[in-house]
Design goal:
The complex is a heterotrimer of chains A (290), B (326) and C (346). Chain A has helices spanning 2-16, 19-41, 78-114, 116-131, 134-145, 149-176, 179-186, 191-227, 238-248, 255-283. Chain A has 290 residues and is mostly helical. In chain A, helix 5 runs antiparallel to helix 6. Chain A is elongated and about 80 Å long. The two termini of chain A are 37 Å apart. The chains are: A mainly alpha (290), B mainly alpha (326), C alpha/beta (346). Chains in contact: A-B, B-C.
Chain lengths: 290, 326, 346
Amino acid sequence: MTAVLRFLAEQWRIIRADRLGMIGALIVGFALLVALLAPYIAPHDPWTSLRAADGRMAVLRPPSWEYLLGTTSLARDILSQMIWATRTTVAIGLVSGLISILIGANIGLIAGYYGGRIDEVLMRLTDIVYGMPFLPFVIVLIALFGRSISFVVLAIVVIVWRTSARVIRAQTLSLRERQFVTAARARGAGDLRIIYLHIMPNVLPLLLLYTAFNIAWAIITEASASFLGFGDPDLVTWGGILFDLWTSGRIRTAWWWFAPPALAIVVFVAALVFISRAYETVANPRLQER
Amino acid sequence: MGTYIARRLAHAALTLLAVATILFVLFRLMPGDPTAQVISPALDGAAQARLKAAFGLDRPLWQQYLIYLANVATLEWGQSFTTFEPVARIVADRMVNTLLLMSAGLAMAIGFGGALGMLMAWRRGGPLDIGATLAALVFQAAPPFVTGILLLMVLSYNLDLLPSAGMLTPGSKLFGLWEIVTSADFLSHLVLPTAAITVYYLATPMLIMRDSMLEVMGSDYVEFARAKGLSPAVVMVRHAARNALLGIVTVASLLLGFAIGGQVVVETVFSWPGMGKLMVEAATRHDYPVAQATFFMLATLVVGLNLLTDLSYGWLDPRIRTGHAR
Amino acid sequence: MAPRDGAPPLLEVRNLRVRYRTRRGAVHAVDGVSFAIGEGEVLGVAGESGCGKSTLVRALLRLLPPGAVMAADKLAFRGRDLLALPDRTFRREVLWKQLALVPQSAQNSLNPAYRVGDQIVEALQAHADMTGAQARERVAALFDIVGLEPGLARRFPHEFSGGMRQRAMIAMALALEPPLVIMDEPTTGLDVLVQERILRRIAEIRARVKSSILLITHDIAVIAEMADRIAVMYAGRIVEQGSTAAMFAAPFHPYTLGLQNAFPSIAKPGKELISIPGHPPALAAPIGGCGFAARCPFAQPRCGDARPPEVAVGPPGGPAHDAACVRLADVAEIRRAAREKSTWRS
């Protein structure tokens, strides 16, 4: 437990040292809070068509005190949709980001540590995944297997690990030859022990940097797929809100419908990029002087 | 250089083979009748049986696989479920349109990004450096459909400066590729989608160029070039930027992996009649032959462009050109 | 050819100072250096790394990084005031035409992207009105001078060995027959055999080309072999300078004595090497007294009081020989003690 706390304190120190990183952390923290509290803070049900006081459907209302962010062409409250969409989008991002870094880090560590035939096979595999166009793959997978959240996450995870694997492999290759590794081997430490107890702590900043990146890529990809109509129809996401706007044909007038999800995507992804930059200076000390 | 090219070509071919295999497996795993991937359920029984035999779908799985590979290699994708045209013919036109938009966007992004990155590094810490870094971080976070819609709203819907959709004004009488790409109509349609793509891609080459420029500028040969009494512009471009370009080329493959995704989205937003839009439509309508073909062709595009970057790396770095590197 | 002769020296430097601004405050890398080089003369500047030699070179070539400030009472080249020259004029008229460099890291100073010959052609065409064919012809002639096969001009730097690159750099420096060539550690990083060959080659070239050389090195043996005069630098200052013969026969400054102990001598092959304990100071603050006092076995409390002035120590009427030490009067005793290993133990 204390180890976990010490780890978290260390991460906080790294992020706080960088002004942009700090801003990023605050934004991500706010989004997490909204995601957790969604059922309690959303003023309306995101799917219900609302009626105004005069009994008419509240269709395409611009922002007002009644509907803070306005309503959609189906008279749904955009603020409530945004709050629930934050929950799903952030969850999709976190889940796919974390699973993909788990895959990428392990492939990178194993390929880099063992080298030789294992490295060759794993890196050829990575090359093949690099040959897969990312978003088209997500679209094809969903078209074949159905518009469900699990396939969206699966499709993202299957592709997005590739960059982290390459980068972590490169770092592991150079760490493998370092003295503390040879010393550990001389003491009779097993391969797994060396990989996870001696090498991994040294690639940790890089790993966290790419965790942030992977989450960012996952969110952009999910938003793009949803915007193109390949999202889960039972869930509301930022990209899904934009898809509804796009297909409603109201894009020329309903700016209040466009601005919240668009801003949410840009601001949240930018926050992740800011955090990753804070780690970049740690992962790559040369950058500190720049 | 010869063996370098040969090895890269072999890698590219292997990757495409793997992509085709993955496609084959995915379509077999698809729930429902596996033959539905090439034969439209709308056809009558006799026609279905005829097509089944033509595509070898009545044979064992491994034979189906070999027939499939042969079909892929000869671009024989069957016919569209929706228009009943041969898929190869539909795809060919769209491929050209995609290449037009993509090369315009990538050229702008790498050209502007490279030049900006170079100047940012040269005046490190200056207003351009700080401003462009921040802008790049934000633009990088904006998916191209967001910037695309924003551009549409401002420049097309509100100010009515540029056309909002398509590649040519409907009813255009232009004929032949050259006539089309040199027409004012085409170019005005090209501006917005290119801008959306450029803004999205710009950040990566720019930041990479900046970083590798900073690295190269600290090198002995750049200092020595200054000692030779060359003008600052010559030192910056001929000695520093020339070597920093290698940095851009190294990450180009990473950029391309995402470029295709941006392409698909931007084509949809601007109704650009390219492969990406075709693919989205086909996937939405469950037109599997077209979806498969477009996916494979987009993968070919990624692999082909990756090959191109590898080759240009070899060309830029004499150590590889003369066969001294691993 | 001492600078006290009537004609103006080729290069005259008086009270040159260079200060770097860093996050931890200013660093006085060069702290009031004065010297002169005569026409055709070889002046060796010796000292450990970190004594300000490289900064001195950068200052002379105006290659100081941003954040460095340079000042001098006088900086003149054949009587022309270099301090007053705008950057552009300096770059076009002085660099390479008048003042060429054989850089410290010749290994990495060739741009890996271009053919070696083309890089020399570039220098030629930047400063002389030459066609491509003329420039290439000149490159072939230069390669011949430094003992490289002319056909090698079409090769890339990575196809050259260390020694070949060093020769190519020397060829490039000689391209426009500049009156002064600065050679910054020309033999560092090369193996002994190649070093020997390069030195012999430089000596041969000296016989054919009449350039002066400012030779920067930490290697006393190289200086002894090549220099007409020697300036010993420590902590950003010149602590002693004089003719090579005088400096070796009768050095005055304890640091010069220490340096000579630390290198193998050609005259006394079997001599035991004694190194000076400690390292040069970081120069974060200007040093009030003698820069060497902290490491000097002969230091006295008064050494820290004020910067010792450079005093003429040579025989009257002979070649100039200056040293900056407050204990010059005790030199006989110091020289004797300096030969003992126990003296230099920290």
